[in-house]
Design brief:
This protein is of the alpha+beta class. The protein is built from seven helices and nine strands, in the order βββββββββααααααα. The chain has helices at 115-138, 145-177, 185-199, 202-208, 216-234, 238-241, 245-265; strands at residues 7-8, 11-16, 20-26, 28-38, 41-50, 53-62, 67-75, 80-86, 105-107. A five-stranded mixed β-sheet has the order 7-8-3-2-9, with no helix packed on it. The chain has a four-stranded mixed β-sheet with strand order 1-6-5-4, with no helix packed on it. A hairpin with a 4-residue loop joins strand 7 (67-75) and strand 8. Helix 3 (185-199) runs antiparallel to helix 5 and helix 4 (202-208) packs antiparallel against helix 5. The longest helix is centred in the middle third of the chain and has 33 residues, at 145-177.
């Protein structure tokens, strides 16, 4: 920039809330920003591309009522946004101490609200805050929540590992033995299937203890149905143990259980 540049005033747009004042300075690619707030007066200096091209721009605003001395600002390619906090949360009749509005200052209609709208917004936020506090106060914090989540995590981990072993075992045997693996599936995987399904009885107890949202009766029906298939149909009827249907039932069963038990493992413990 040339040292012969003259200092000009940029276009400034303003809006307010009960606790804040927003200023939008129309200055593209602003640099060398110097924004100070002293004795209730904001002073702005910067270089950039404004209404009069590339120049030095500056302005000064003395606010109607006291503001906090800290000012925050953010510069973008198109403008400089400034936020100032009022010392008291109240609505101002105008922005500046002087009654006559500066020529470079105009309302920011993108942010503009009248007092009634701002009060409604403030009231809505306050009601939301009170409702949140009320809801939080009604919810009793469970001191054993971490322990319960840890227990469920370990249960699902054991089930995941057990059914993964069954799935991998059957898959490897299928690749090695082909269709011959269909007929001895029960004898090679039954022990692990028995173990996993006996552990699944815990799923009936969990709803009674309030550990899961699943109802008692759905869990009871699910576990009972699977126990009938495994222990009664396959386990006690020897003629069923050498049939290929065992392979397909166990393969589908283990696949479903791998996905079902892996989902809780992705949830955080805290």
């Amino acid at each position: 920039m040339s040292s012969t540049m003259q200092s000009l005033t940029p276009h400034v747009y303003w809006a307010q809330r009960h606790g804040d004042v927003y200023l939008r300075v129309e200055l593209c690619d602003a640099k060398n920003l110097d924004i100070t707030l002293q004795q209730n007066t904001l002073q702005f200096k910067a270089q950039g591309h404004g209404a009069k091209g590339d120049n030095d721009y500056e302005f000064r605003l003395e606010f109607l009522e006291p503001v906090q001395p800290k000012v925050s600002h953010k510069s973008t390619q198109r403008q400089v946004n400034i936020k100032i906090l009022k010392k008291e949360e109240r609505w101002w009749s105008r922005l500046t101490l002087q009654e006559k509005k500066p020529l470079f200052l105009a309302p920011d209609f993108d942010r503009w609200q009248d007092e009634s709208d701002a009060e409604k917004e403030l009231q809505a936020k306050e009601e939301q805050r009170i409702n949140k506090i009320t809801v939080e106060s009604r919810i009793r914090k469970d001191p054993y929540l971490g322990l319960k989540k840890g227990y469920l995590f370990m249960y699902n981990l054991v089930q995941f590992l057990g059914f993964s072993w069954i799935f991998v075992n059957m898959t490897v045997r299928l690749f090695i033995l082909g269709q011959d693996s269909f007929y001895d599936t029960f004898h090679t995987t039954a022990d692990m299937m028995y173990f996993c399904q006996m552990m699944a009885v815990i799923e009936v107890i969990n709803p009674l203890l309030g550990l899961v949202k699943t109802g008692f009766f759905p869990a009871m029906l699910q576990v009972t149905g699977r126990n009938v298939i495994l222990f009664v149909i396959f386990g006690s009827l020897e003629q069923m143990q050498n049939k290929s249907v065992v392979f397909f039932v166990f393969y589908l069963w283990s696949t479903i259980e791998i996905f079902r038990s892996s989902l809780p493992l992705t949830l955080p413990l805290t």
